[in-house]
Design a protein that fits this description.
By secondary structure, the protein is of the alpha/beta class. It is built from six helices and seven strands, in the order αββαβαβαβαββα.
Amino acid sequence: MNKLVVFLGFIIPITILSCSTSVGNQEHEVTQDGKNMSISKDKEDANVTKPEYLTLESFKEKVWNFEENPEEWVYKGETPCVIDFYADWCKPCKMVAPIMDEMAQKYDGKVKIYKIDTDKERELATIFRIRSIPSVLFVPSEGKPSMKTGALPKESYIQIIDNELLKNK
């Protein structure tokens, strides 16, 4: 019985603390009808540039409409872009993800950073013959894109972007 009392005396406070309604940097506002509404107070997140996730349709709008131009690469963007072909289950992809987040901030306004989930966008993965992930497509404003496969160090991505995508900028 003593062990049960000690156990409950230890577990109950931990359970109460872990189930509190305060989560990270969120604040709760009570509306007129008495319901709680969560409001994010992460002002930093609002100003952080992140990679944009592309679907088949948004890829055709922003990068290349291969249905209109099946024989020729015609880039639709105004600035160079980097496209990270990834999958959620892929460990090397998870290593590259924070690097792509950093690149989106570092090159904000100069280079677009896109991500394509190869499990959801199988047609795009097939078009680009993605056999290994991560695969990263580097697309200059003019000229042909180039593909690198595997998780590269951050410095390699920076070097490719600076030397191949921004060389004339």
